[in-house]
Amino acid sequence: MTAHVDSHAAPTSAEDFLNRRATLSQRIHTVLHRQPALSPAIVLVLAGAVFALLNSRFYQLGNLSLVAQQVAVVGSLAVGQTLVILTAGIDLSIGAVMVLSSLVMSKLAFDHGVPGVLALLIGAALAVAAQAVNGLLVTRIKLPPFIVTLGTLSIFTAATLIFAKGQTVALPPGAFLLWSSQTISLGSLHLTTGVLLMIALYAVIGFALRYTAWGRHLYAVGDDVEASRLAGISVNRVLLSAYMVAGLAIAVAAWILVGRVGGGDPNSGINANLESITAVVIGGTSLFGGRGVVLGSLIGACIVQVFDNGLALAGFDPNYQVLAVGVLVIAAVSVDQWIRSVKS
Amino acid sequence: MHISIRSAAAASHDRSRRPQLASAGLVVCLAASLAACSSSSGTTATGGSASGGGAKVGVALILKTLSNPYFVSMEKDAKTEAAKDNVSLTVAAGNTDGDTQTQISAIDTAISRGDKGILITTNGDAVNAALNQAKQAGLFVIALDTATNPATVADITYATDNTQAGKLDGQYAATALGGKPADIAMLDLFNNQVVSVDINRDHGFLQGMGIDPGSTTQNAKESKTGKYSGGTYTVACHQPTQGAIDGGRTAMENCLSADPNINVVYAINEPAAEGAYAALKAAGKTDVPVYAIDGSCAGLKLVASGELAADAVQYPGKMASLGVDAIAKLARGGSKPAVTSGKDFYDTGTALAATKPQTGVTIESPDQAAGACWGN
């Protein structure tokens, strides 16, 4: 693509046709196609501007730090969900695994006197093991991820309730597991260690997806299983690893949830599962796999929380928050559909 | 962000996969609906002793959920009573608050099992038709904790007066302000999903403060500013909490962002109140009083430690055991239970637990209230 022909002349050969100057809409199309996180980023900025106009408190650092704290749990969970959706799968059990893991962590520490670090590691191992079960059912029994995780959603939810015996666990102040809710203040910006944990998670997984062979294989498998197999990628190992690494993201989310709730609560986080799918979809990751970036999911999760917070500040009936999120999901998938129609 | 492998299949790629978008959307919808009603939980406890006399009586206990200690304590006390009365008790529960489908199947099952009665804490009006069928089939229907809407769908309601519970909190809150302007955060259960406990507690609290709720069927319809019994008031927000800690925390955070001067917090239940307290603490506002309704043993400790300013105490276990007993007696030829005089339901009572006395408001100390608390 070096020499550009005069754009006003009609193309006279196939070569000219390929090199013709693109129209504005085509150029936007191409940019959005290359940068899946761009369209959600535009939505986030626009939403922020509108809510700032509706209520000037929205842009105060104190409020923005709250949004960051509120987003940390679903944001971390969305990392795991992104990995699974990139493989053209979907994980309906991810939220249930998080609640189970958070409850196991806090219950072990509180009821059974297990040291906090150990309780955290056991809870994390449980999340990875639960995701390994999902991954093995998908790769070995060859069940569709939707069916597998629909089943395990019920199983993990029931396990949580059986284990919790209908009780919440309140950890004493200063417990190690509550470290994830430590406040870090920079002037009037109050972040928590949980927010930083989430950002670190995005950095690590984002790097791994972009710069490691594992990450490139994950995209390849999600885009086209057959072509990946022919290219010598061990498809099953990549799929299983996606679920298990998602388990690590779930463990981080569970730890942040423990901090936010101050312990374990079987009722907290029960909507997180669909919220994580919403975040990933709004974030521009394609449900068909192979296209998307984790950063998009962070932006997607932020968009949902900004709508929640912004509409609440503006004094809207909370039902409009739910309505707005529904509209966003449809819009996001429509944009994805349009972007996908680009020929690369 | 693209990779080379794609180009091989790219030509036919987009067209061939296009129909899958529709199915993917469908799949997500299905996920949502199935997740909400995929399984029901059921356990059977069978009474061992014959002290109740006569043949075994079948009773179905259908709870809102089994994830809330409030309902778990109903289950526990009902099982104890069932063992005493020679009752075969079957327990079922919705998967989430608001899950009526699972409750309807549990009602159908109770009818076909030949149970003599149903005890239900309803998740919504959608169960009414099934309950009417149960009554036609000769089952005695007792609503526990939450009255059905209309109340006549059940033969009788065993409940705490949720409006009264809210009122006790509201009166205490109004008196404690001592004439200062009130800036109120209302942390409800849902966004007006027609759950009577949500409306009754919210409206009771406002009435207790001397504020007209402005509607009998919906929350957040009161005028946002005006006069309460002690002075002027502002309602800063109505936010849903899902009755959970994380929901309570997020709701309180948003309320504080909108209005940092909030000085009265109503919370639908203890978990929502705990979340609200966490948000207030993070904002350095632990002196803002939080009012809750529930009366669990854990909640009363929060009253003692000062996290909750007051907690209206209810007795879920008592409702359940009285209900089991009533059906067992009726099935063995006894008479129907009667409502509390002056009310359209059997009132199992409410008390207000608080540490600081206020003139004109009767309170129990957390220690006194703990004598009849539930959970652990």
Q: What is the average of the pLDDT values of chain B?
A: 84
Basic shape of chain B: elongated
Largest interface: A-B, 75 and 63 residues
Strand fraction band of chain B? 15-25%
SS field, number of helical segments of chain B:
11
Strand order of the largest sheet of chain A: 1-4
| Global structural class of chain A | mainly alpha
The radius of gyration over CA of chain A amounts to: 22 Å
Q: What would you say the CATH architecture of the largest domain in chain B is? A: 3-Layer(aba) Sandwich
**CATH superfamily annotation of the largest domain in chain B:** Response regulator
Supply the number of structural domains of chain B.
2
CATH class of chain A: Mainly Alpha
Amino-to-carboxy terminus distance of chain A:
14 Å
Main sheet properties of chain A = 2 strands, antiparallel
Largest sheet of chain B: 7 strands, mixed
Low-confidence segments of chain A, given as residue ranges, are none
Distance between the termini of chain B: 54 Å
Low-confidence stretches of chain B: 1-52
SS strand fraction of chain A: under 5%
Description:
The complex is a heterodimer of chains A (about 350) and B (about 375). The longest helix of chain A has 27 residues, at about 235-260. In chain A, a hairpin with a 2-residue loop joins strand 2 (about 185) and strand 3. Chain A is built from 14 helices and four strands. Chain A has helices at about 15-20, 25-35, 40-55, 60-85, 95-110, 115-140, 145-165, 195-210, 215-225, 225-230, 235-260, 270-280, 295-315, 320-340, and strands at about 170, 185, 190, 265. Chain A has about 350 residues and is mainly α. The two termini of chain A are about 15 Å apart. Chain A has a single domain (about 40-335), classed as ABC transporter involved in vitamin B12 uptake, BtuC, CATH 1.10.3470. Chain A is globular. By secondary structure, chain B is of the alpha/beta class. Chain B has two domains: about 40-160 and about 315-335, Rossmann fold (3-Layer(aba) Sandwich), CATH 3.40.50.2300; about 160-315 and about 350-370, Response regulator (Rossmann fold, 3-Layer(aba) Sandwich). Chain B has eleven helices and 14 strands. Chain B has helices spanning about 5-35, 70-85, 100-115, 130-135, 160-175, 195-210, 245-260, 270-280, 295-305, 315-330, 365-370, and strands at about 40-45, 55-65, 85-95, 115-120, 140-145, 155-160, 180-190, 225-230, 230-240, 265, 290-295, 310-315, 345, 350-355. In chain B, helix 2 runs parallel beside helix 10 and helix 3 runs parallel beside helix 4 (about 130-135). Chain B starts with 5 loop residues before the first helix and ends in a 6-residue tail after the last helix. Residues about 1-50 of chain B have low confidence and may be disordered. At the A-B interface, helix 4, helix 7, helix 9, helix 10 and helix 11 of A face helix 1, helix 2, strand 9, helix 7 and helix 8 of B.
